[in-house]
UniProtKB/TrEMBL annotation, chains A, B:
Reactions that this protein is recorded to catalyse: Release of a C-terminal amino acid with broad specificity, except for -Pro
Keyword Zinc carried by entry: yes
Organism of provenance: Candidatus Synechococcus spongiarum LMB bulk15M
Active site: E266 (proton donor/acceptor)
Manner of cofactor binding, per the entry note: Binds 1 zinc ion per subunit.
Identification of the protein by name: Metal-dependent carboxypeptidase
Length: 506, 506
């Protein structure tokens, strides 16, 4: 960038980036180290930073910087103009969205979120939906008011989904999800009726699980000069700076594969972040260097978790390593470990669901939140509709609301429009993997040869650098040459199911 | 506080406090978790926060808030006026000091500090003073310019010492330190000539050391809801919020008592911070709730490290605990552990020095930095004068500058005037302990009975709440009824030496 206006905006963006990364540090510490009683003060710190970021992103000075840069666009070298035009357009879009919102609404939402989260925790603990229902009603009311203020040419649910999955709408989701709705229940049913090996039960202590996670990361390119693995109540991935990547896992002694799979998943998120345009890119700190969408982000974590770690070749390689670390092999042979890594039976809890039923959990949530926001479904009826959907999709029924509509945190924080990204991640992952395999051969072949770095190279070349240049659908189109569809995912799932069910019962 | 001006300043102070605690979080993470490559970005984050704090503390708006509050002082309830007058006077003093400094000098100093630290690291690694000397000359030049701008009625060294030890001057230090200078070398000599038991050599792994540190903290009132122990390359203590206290230690396998003693020391610092006026005090976030001085802070860490953990009773209680944790007792009986905890022979390195020679290390530094700042001692002569002082006070000579004048970090960051606080800490600790023992009986009696909480109660009642209401000397006067002096420290040291030397050689 050569003009003064651009330089000023560039400095502004970089400072906002510094500030956002301070927020990440506070969040990281809160979830990995902070003692319990630190929470209230941490809240004040986070609120202060949030207020600074908000005022930077909505203030008159920022509007002026943005307008000046837009006016100076023509003075940039012609080759750079398309990128900077897109950067500025994305900033403009975000700026206008923020500016359209009444600060009183923003405050009211922050308060309602905090109350909603707290009441949800109580309600879930007590298995009592009625204590949470009024908070959810208030959150829906405020979010609909937000939709009214944003005044976009989209439906309310679509408007709220934009920050997670740009340009996504009901119609497209319907095209993508209809095949899932149609065929996944039959696959779930198919599993239910087939004999399989008995699943081994085993437990493993924290040190062993931690060691296996570290072995996994070492194989998958973890560099301790720029990466950290820690423990937290809920696994997550974050960046504290352009060369400072952090992930967490949690150890459940009764579920010896849980920390391992969570590590694979979060490391996938981190690898995507690490592959985005970095400090060496002129776009660093600008929208084009940001992640494409939540669905694409999820596709990257799911690739490493499901396509690599839950593959049969992986179990072949890792069964001896697990046996060495655990000191025994209660799972039996490598296929026993493979089966343990691929639980098939549908359960009530989304975060424990396998690849087969996961998207059904999402469909149910997507449909219910659309009903709440767009079809006047009374909040009081949510538990009943939840059970009905559950019965239809998965043929199981929660015993109580805490296993049902209170299991997820999202709605308690007024987060609507997010769930589909989880399902899109599965679809995108499958479609990208088909393209990858067409170019460099089967994932499993590379895994069997310890060549995961070749998989990463492909992602680093074809997927990661695109950033926000494209939305999720455009990314798939650009990388695979075809439109996003559920077909690759269903193909993959059916083939994997055949192979899993073929593992002879013992 | 009832007036609007006070309320506004109060909010300003609280926000500055929030911001300062964000800085602490960044520092904590940097030293406990951050990967190496995160350093550059962390530098940007820290610089941003520092700039925000600086502009809050020197801006015109702050000056107006301060002046308005000063003008409104008379409207406060009469009972509150003395406290708020002192709070405002301390803020005013700090504000005027900041305002007198040319921002160009502040920037130049920040740059010179960073360069000095970096060159010092190189010089120390290469045992080559000449690479660091020009940076030290520049730091001295800039600090003398700072003294000129501050224009206080004090000598240059005294001016620079104010932030650490308010109101301290050469004359008073001379009165306090002369007895040390006179009598400590003789005590060191006395040790050298006496037969003692052979010191046991042993090593202990990280987990065992960590477990012993945790046992120690549990005995000394550690509350995991508000406190954290972590590892870092250099032990330190910090607060990330009013109910969020952190300390670190480091494990040296070859020095099995090092982590333990560092934990005792840092926990003493933390206990002092925890006992300062907290959120329930109207002065929270104001100067009166801040620590008295660095010397007083050090007196608290030294109390727990030296008076409690290095006491004979402590070894009696802890020798079985150590044996249980280590799985053996290479130190022999409890007195063997006591001797291991009290190395007497003088060494070259300050941070490894025992109680006997520690203050001599400080005298040497205090004298040399005074010579550098006030008596035109050429920087090039520092190594030679260092050796001469070392020979005079401790009768030993460094083999190279990295064991000599390059061993401490302070001067490389332009930090002059800090060292005496370390020695004052020993004096204050001894004098406070005499007062404590006169009131509640011998420290050792409480330790023998597992009654450390009674020691803490006394400190919580008599010492901690005073905060910046008093300077270090006033605190001693107020608590003990006598002027600060070296006599209690020398009395204590001589008595302890008698007891240590009386432990029969085996």
């Amino acid at each position: 960038m050569s003009t003064a206006a651009f330089d000023q905006l560039h400095r502004h963006q970089r400072e906002t980036h510094v500030l956002a990364s301070i927020n990440s540090c506070l969040y990281w510490d809160q979830n990995t180290a902070m003692p319990l009683d630190g929470a209230a003060w941490r809240g004040e710190q986070l609120a202060w930073v949030a207020q600074q970021i908000h005022s930077r992103q909505t203030g008159a000075r920022y509007g002026e910087l943005l307008a000046a840069a837009e006016a100076g666009l023509g003075q940039l070298p012609p080759d750079d103009q398309a990128d900077w035009q897109q950067n500025l357009a994305l900033l403009r879009q975000q700026y206008e969205r923020q500016c359209r919102l009444d600060p009183a609404l923003v405050n009211a939402l922050a308060g309602a979120r905090a109350r909603g989260y707290s009441l949800w925790q109580d309600a879930r603990r007590n298995r009592d939906f009625s204590t949470f229902a009024p908070a959810l009603e208030e959150l829906i009311r405020l979010r609909l008011e937000q939709v009214r203020q944003l005044a976009e040419p989209r439906s309310p649910w679509e408007t709220l989904a934009q920050p997670f999955e740009p340009d996504v709408g009901h119609q497209r989701l319907e095209e993508l999800f209809a095949p899932l709705r149609q065929r996944l229940p039959a696959l779930v049913e198919r599993v239910r009726g087939r004999p399989r090996r008995a699943m081994p039960q085993w437990t493993t202590g924290q040190a062993v699980q931690r060691s296996l996670c570290e072995q996994l990361l070492a194989c998958w390119g973890f560099d301790e000069r720029r990466c950290v693995l820690a423990s937290s109540p809920h696994p997550f991935s974050t960046n504290l700076g352009p060369r400072d990547f952090r992930i967490t896992s949690r150890t459940l002694v009764q579920q010896p594969l849980s920390a391992f799979m969570a590590t694979a998943h979060e490391w996938g998120h981190s690898l995507y972040d690490q592959g985005l345009p970095g400090q060496e890119s002129p776009c660093f700190g600008w929208p084009l260097a940001a992640p494409t969408s939540m669905g694409v982000h999820e596709s990257q974590s799911l690739f490493w978790e499901n396509r690599v770690a839950r593959g049969r070749a992986f179990s072949q390689v890792w069964s001896p390593r697990f046996a060495e670390a655990v000191g025994a092999a209660p799972w039996g042979d490598a296929d026993g470990l493979w089966m343990a890594m691929n639980p098939l039976d549908p359960g009530l809890i989304r975060v424990e669901a396998g690849e087969l039923s996961y998207c059904l959990h999402i469909l149910l949530r997507y449909e219910l939140e659309t009903d709440l926001l767009e079809h006047n479904m009374p909040v009081a009826e949510l538990p009943e509709h939840w059970c009905a959907h559950m019965a239809r999709y998965l043929d199981i029924t929660p015993d109580h609301v805490s296993e049902g509509c209170l299991q997820d945190v999202h709605w308690s924080e007024g987060l609507f429009g997010y769930f589909p990204s989880y399902a899109l991640g599965h679809l995108i992952s499958a479609q990208l993997t088909e393209a990858m395999e067409a170019e460099i051969g089967p994932v499993e072949t590379h895994v069997a040869a310890g060549g995961e770095s070749r998989l990463l190279s492909w992602l680093r070349r074809r997927v990661h650098p695109l950033g926000r240049r494209v939305n999720g659908e455009q990314l798939v189109q650009q990388v695979t040459g075809g439109s996003l569809s559920a077909a690759p995912f269903l193909r993959y799932l059916e083939a994997k199911l055949d192979r899993l069910l073929a593992v002879a019962p013992r």
